[in-house]
């Protein structure tokens, strides 16, 4: 299952005409960039894993992950360790002008291969940026770099940057946002100065790929923490886990690009070529070449533990979650449906995991691959999500 996871104001008008989006987004967009201290005190799993300190090691890791005689996930559990540390998490809070939904916060968690820029595409943002779309719909939105990515801390890749630790960070961020102390407790790195007292009345969890898996883990562990969930790039279905990690073409991150990933240590891996990115995230005919270039430009490493630990947060029921939940996935998602999601899922079986949910929907985004925000019909998918939330009273 882990292997399936496989998202300055420009003044010159000429750049805008070329499709370069202004980071300020639509009129009225106000955002603040934050460094959020997140204290974590949790129990994590200590895994049986080989060291990955070169690309040769990485290729051998891929072989170990896929060889049928290799230990299964349960057999790789060696014990438990305590993770007690305060991590610096880089995030951005954006709030629209006062409106009927500005006190509903969407908290977005990205997946493997990206940082928070997955949600806020800078090329033709009116067509691709989920942040801009959410703001235009009246929602507030908080995006962040998961632990190990972007400008957030990058600790041990074998035990710490793992699924259950990431779930705990998401739980703490959710509680901090609900308390109204997200901004006031953080170091402000720039942006709007009038958002310190922002306190949402409701919180919707939004995830992509691994990010959706982390939301699923949060709903199972603390369902009452969230008022709704939008799970994109993920679907419980008969093909889940059928694709190996091999198509990523992983390399040791520091070796792949010493300048870009020089701060990543042992156990951090990244896709090797732009065309590995295409294979995993995009479907021919449903993306612009500039978006493939953009995806490659903003690519981010992940840790070996995130793959091996993924199964520990999936498949558990969320009896205390009482909000609406939507699964949105590309019709031709390669990683989760082996290239075609049609006829692979059972809505009744999925509903059993969310027995108290007020509404559940599965949406296959037509003609689209895994990278939903990078595909040409991105905004059409956003509309389906917003309509679902509105029908659910959010």
From TrEMBL:
SUPFAM superfamilies: alpha/beta-Hydrolases. It comes from Cercophora newfieldiana. Residues 1-21 form the signal peptide. The keyword Signal applies. This is Alpha/beta hydrolase family-domain-containing protein. Residues 110-375 form the AB hydrolase-1 domain. Keywords: Hydrolase, Signal. It holds the Pfam family Abhydrolase_6. InterPro entries: AB_hydrolase_1 (IPR000073), AB_hydrolase_fold (IPR029058). The keyword Signal applies. One of its GO terms (molecular function) is hydrolase activity.
């Amino acid at each position: 299952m882990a292997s399936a996871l496989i998202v300055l104001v420009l003044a010159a008008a000429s750049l805008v005409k070329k499709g370069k989006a202004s980071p300020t987004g639509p009129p009225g967009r106000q955002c603040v960039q934050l460094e959020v201290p997140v204290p974590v005190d949790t129990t994590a799993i200590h895994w049986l894993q080989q060291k990955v300190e070169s690309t040769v090691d990485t290729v051998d890791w891929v072989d170990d992950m896929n060889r049928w005689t290799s230990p299964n996930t349960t057999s790789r559990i060696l014990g438990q360790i305590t993770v007690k540390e305060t991590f610096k998490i880089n995030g951005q809070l954006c709030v629209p002008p006062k409106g009927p939904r500005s006190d509903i916060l969407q908290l977005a968690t990205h997946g493997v291969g990206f940082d928070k820029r997955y949600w806020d595409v800078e090329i033709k943002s009116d067509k691709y940026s989920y942040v801009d779309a959410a703001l235009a719909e009246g929602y507030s939105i908080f995006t962040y770099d998961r632990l190990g990515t972007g400008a957030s801390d990058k600790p041990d890749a074998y035990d710490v940057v793992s699924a259950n630790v990431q779930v705990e960070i998401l739980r703490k961020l959710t509680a901090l946002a609900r308390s109204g102390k997200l901004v006031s407790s953080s170091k402000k790195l720039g942006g709007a100065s009038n958002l310190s007292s922002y306190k949402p009345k409701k919180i919707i969890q939004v995830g992509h790929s691994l990010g959706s898996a982390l939301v699923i883990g949060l709903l199972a562990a603390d369902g009452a923490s969230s008022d709704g969930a939008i799970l994109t790039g993920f679907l419980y279905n008969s093909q889940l886990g059928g694709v190996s990690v091999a198509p990523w073409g992983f390399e040791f991150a520091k070796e792949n690009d010493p300048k870009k990933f020089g701060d990543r240590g042992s156990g951090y891996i990244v896709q090797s070529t732009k065309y590995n990115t295409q294979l995993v995230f995009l479907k021919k005919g449903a993306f612009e070449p500039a978006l493939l270039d953009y995806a490659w430009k903003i690519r981010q490493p992940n840790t070996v533990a995130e793959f091996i630990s993924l199964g520990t947060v999936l498949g558990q029921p969320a009896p205390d979650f009482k909000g609406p939940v939507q699964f949105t996935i590309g019709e031709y998602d390669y990683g989760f449906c082996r290239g075609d999601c049609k006829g692979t899922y059972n809505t009744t079986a999925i509903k059993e995991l969310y027995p108290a949910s007020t509404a559940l929907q599965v949406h296959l985004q037509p003609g689209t691959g895994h990278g939903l925000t990078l595909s040409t019909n991105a905004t059409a998918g956003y509309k389906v999500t917003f309509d679902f939330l509105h029908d659910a009273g959010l």
